[in-house]
UniProtKB/TrEMBL annotation:
<dbReference type="InterPro" id="IPR036291">
    <property type="entry name" value="NAD(P)-bd_dom_sf"/>
</dbReference>
<keyword id="KW-0274">FAD</keyword>
<dbReference type="GO" id="GO:0006826">
    <property type="term" value="P:iron ion transport"/>
</dbReference>
<feature type="transmembrane region" description="Helical">
    <location>
        <begin position="249"/>
        <end position="271"/>
    </location>
</feature>
<dbReference type="GO" id="GO:0052851">
    <property type="term" value="F:ferric-chelate reductase (NADPH) activity"/>
</dbReference>
<feature type="domain" description="Pyrroline-5-carboxylate reductase catalytic N-terminal">
    <location>
        <begin position="21"/>
        <end position="107"/>
    </location>
</feature>
<feature type="transmembrane region" description="Helical">
    <location>
        <begin position="347"/>
        <end position="365"/>
    </location>
</feature>
<feature type="transmembrane region" description="Helical">
    <location>
        <begin position="204"/>
        <end position="229"/>
    </location>
</feature>
<protein>
    <submittedName>
        <fullName>Metalloreductase STEAP4</fullName>
    </submittedName>
</protein>
<keyword id="KW-1133">Transmembrane helix</keyword>
<keyword id="KW-0967">Endosome</keyword>
<keyword id="KW-0560">Oxidoreductase</keyword>
<keyword id="KW-0813">Transport</keyword>
<dbReference type="GO" id="GO:0008823">
    <property type="term" value="F:cupric reductase (NADH) activity"/>
</dbReference>
<feature type="transmembrane region" description="Helical">
    <location>
        <begin position="292"/>
        <end position="313"/>
    </location>
</feature>
<feature type="transmembrane region" description="Helical">
    <location>
        <begin position="386"/>
        <end position="407"/>
    </location>
</feature>
<comment type="similarity">
    <text>Belongs to the STEAP family.</text>
</comment>
Length: 461
C-alpha cells in the first residue's frame, strides 16, 4: 500500500466521533465559513496562511500556521484562494504529493481560462489528487446555515477514493454530494454559479420582442387610426385596453410555443423513422425551455385576468354604459336581449375561466416541490393531456371572443387584420397538426419509434 492510499484510509469515516484534521489554505471569507462549519461537525481544522497571526475572525478552535506546516497536518486540503494566486503551490509540490486538494474556486467570467481552475491546479501540483467541490455553495450560506435552496454540492475528480472522501465530508456537513464524474466536468461546474437564468433568456427576450410588436400594432389601430380618421382621442387606451389585448395574445402564443416543439419533434421522428438521431440544436434548446415559456405565458394570463376584473370600474366603460341607457330613454326604445350575443359572451367567459384554471394547475404541477411528488406518468398526463386541453380552451376562448370581428370588414383598419388573429395562428396550427398525428396511421408508427423501433436500422447485422 503506498503512502497516498494510507492518507486516504486514515480519513475514511470512522465509527468513533473523532475526526481527522482538515487543512484549509486561505483565511478569507470562504475559508473561514468552511472552517466554522467543519469545526461544528467535529473536524479539527488548521489554516495555512501567509500570516500566522490569529485574529478574532478565525473560527474558535482552529489553528493558523504557514502553508507548509498546515499541509503536513492533514491529508485533505481545501484551497480557499483565488486561482490567480495558485502559483505559490508549486513550491509546496513535495509536501502536497499524494494529498487530496479540493478546488473550490470560481471565475468572474464563463470560460475565462482555457482550462478549468481544477485542471490548472492538477497541472501545478501533479502529485496531488485534485477534486472539484463546494464552488456552488456561498460562504454566507455555509456560515449562516441557510442552505435550503443549495444543499447540493457538485463533486468531480479523477481519483475515486479522493472523491469519495470529499463526498463523505460533504455528507457530514449536512449537504448532498452530486458526483459529476471526472475532472473534465470541472469546467461546467465552474460555469454554474456564473449562469444568469440560462433557460429564461429565450422566453423573456421573445416576450419582450412580441410585446413591443403588438404594442405598436394596437397603438396604430386603436389610438392613431381613430385620431386620424375621426379626430377621437383614445390615447388612454394605452393604460388598460392595449395591455389587456397584449396579455392574452402573448399568453396564447407562448402557450402554443410550449407545444409546438413537441409536434415538430414528432414530425421529424416520423420523417426519419428513428428516435436515435439528434434533433437540430435549436429544437433541443427550445424543448429545454418549455417550462419557462409556459410560466411566462401563465404570468401574461394572470395579468389579463386582473385587467379584466377592473373593466367594470373604468370611467370609459361606465360612461359608455350610461350613454347607451340614456340614448335608449331618449329614443323611448328598449333594446331587446340578444340571446346569441348573451350565449357568445357567457361561452367565451366560461372558456376563459376554465382555461385559466387549468393553466394555473399546469403552473403548480411544474413547481419542483409538486413535480417531485408525482411519478413520470402522472407528470406527463398533467403536462401533456391537461396541457392540450388548456390550449384548446384558451384558443376557443379567443376564437369565440374575436371570431365575429374577423368577418367584419371594418375590423381591417389600414387593411391590417385584427390583432387577435395573430394570437390564433400558432395555437391553431399546433392543434390541427396534433389532431392529424392522433390518426392511427401516424400515431402507431410514432409510438413504435418512441419505443425504440427504427424504420431503417443504422446498425443492422
Ligand atoms: P477572499 O475573501 O478574498 O480570500 C482569499 C484568501 O486567499 C485570502 O484571505 C488570503 O488568505 C488568500 N490569498 C490572497 N492572496 C494570496 C496570495 N497572493 N497568495 C496566497 N494566498 C493568497 O476570497 P473568498 O471569498 O474566501 O474566496 C476564496 C475562493 O473560494 C475563491 O477561489 C472563490 O472563487 C471561492 N468561492 C468563494 C465563495 C464565497 O462565497 N466567498 C463561494 C464559492 C467559492 P491568507 O491571507 O490567509 O493567506
Amino acid at each position: 500500500m503506498n503512502k497516498n492510499s494510507t492518507n486516504i484510509m486514515a480519513l475514511a469515516p470512522k465509527s468513533s466521533n473523532k475526526r481527522d484534521t482538515v487543512c484549509i489554505f486561505g483565511t478569507g471569507d470562504f475559508g473561514r465559513a468552511l472552517g466554522h462549519k467543519l469545526i461544528q461537525s467535529g473536524y479539527p481544522v488548521v489554516f495555512g496562511s501567509r500570516s500566522t497571526q490569529t485574529s478574532s475572525l478565525i473560527p474558535k478552535g482552529a489553528e493558523v500556521m504557514s502553508h507548509a506546516e498546515a499541509a503536513q497536518k492533514a491529508a485533505i486540503i481545501f484551497i480557499a484562494i483565488q486561482r490567480q494566486h495558485y502559483n505559490f503551490l508549486t513550491s509546496l509540490a513535495e509536501i502536497l504529493h499524494g494529498k487530496v486538494l479540493v478546488d473550490i474556486s470560481n471565475n468572474s467570467k464563463i470560460n475565462e481560462y482555457p482550462e478549468s481552475n481544477a485542471e490548472y491546479l492538477a497541472q501545478l501540483v501533479p502529485g496531488a489528487k485534485v477534486v472539484k467541490a463546494f464552488n456552488t455553495v456561498s460562504a454566507w450560506a455555509l456560515q449562516s446555515g441557510t442552505l435550503d435552496a443549495s444543499r447540493q454540492v457538485f463533486v468531480c475528480g479523477d481519483d475515486m477514493a479522493a472523491k469519495q472522501l470529499v463526498m463523505d465530508i460533504v455528507r457530514i456537513l449536512g449537504l448532498t454530494p452530486l458526483d459529476q464524474g471526472s475532472l473534465l466536468a470541472a469546467r461546467e461546474i465552474e460555469n454554474y454559479p456564473l449562469q444568469l437564468f440560462p433557460m429564461w433568456k429565450f422566453p423573456i427576450l421573445l416576450s419582450l420582442g412580441l410585446t413591443t410588436f403588438f404594442f405598436f400594432y394596437c397603438l396604430a389601430l386603436d389610438v392613431i387610426y381613430p385620431y386620424v380618421y375621426q379626430k377621437k382621442d383614445f390615447s388612454f387606451f394605452i393604460a388598460i385596453t392595449i395591455p389587456n389585448k397584449i396579455c392574452p395574445i402573448l399568453a396564447l402564443i407562448l402557450l402554443g410555443l410550449v407545444y409546438l416543439p413537441g409536434v415538430l419533434a414528432a414530425i421529424i421522428q416520423l420523417y426519419r423513422g428513428t428516435k436515435y438521431r439528434r434533433f437540430p440544436d435549436w429544437l433541443d434548446k427550445w424543448m429545454l425551455c418549455r417550462k419557462q415559456l409556459g410560466l411566462v405565458a401563465l404570468a401574461f394570463a394572470s395579468v389579463h385576468v386582473l385587467y379584466t376584473l377592473v373593466i367594470p370600474i373604468r370611467s370609459y366603460v361606465r360612461w359608455r354604459t350610461s350613454d347607451r341607457i340614456i340614448s335608449q330613454i331618449q329614443n323611448n326604445r328598449t333594446e331587446p336581449l340578444n340571446t346569441t350575443n348573451a350565449w357568445l359572451s357567457d361561452s367565451y367567459l366560461a372558456l376563459g375561466i376554465l382555461g385559466f384554471f387549468l393553466f394555473v394547475l399546469l403552473g403548480i404541477t411544474s413547481l419542483p416541490s409538486v413535480s417531485n411528488n408525482v411519478n413520470w406518468r402522472e407528470f406527463r398526463f398533467v403536462q401533456s393531456k391537461l396541457g392540450y386541453l388548456t390550449l384548446i380552451l384558451c384558443t376557443a376562448h379567443t376564437l369565440v371572443y374575436g371570431g365575429k370581428w374577423f368577418l367584419v370588414p371594418s375590423s381591417y383598419k389600414w387593411y391590417l387584420p385584427p390583432v387577435y388573429m395573430f394570437s390564433l395562428i400558432i395555437p391553431c396550427s399546433v392543434l390541427v397538426v396534433k389532431f392529424v398525428l392522433i390518426f392511427p396511421c401516424l400515431d402507431k408508427p410514432l409510438t413504435r419509434i418512441r419505443q425504440g423501433w427504427e424504420r431503417n436500422p443504422q446498425y443492422s447485422e
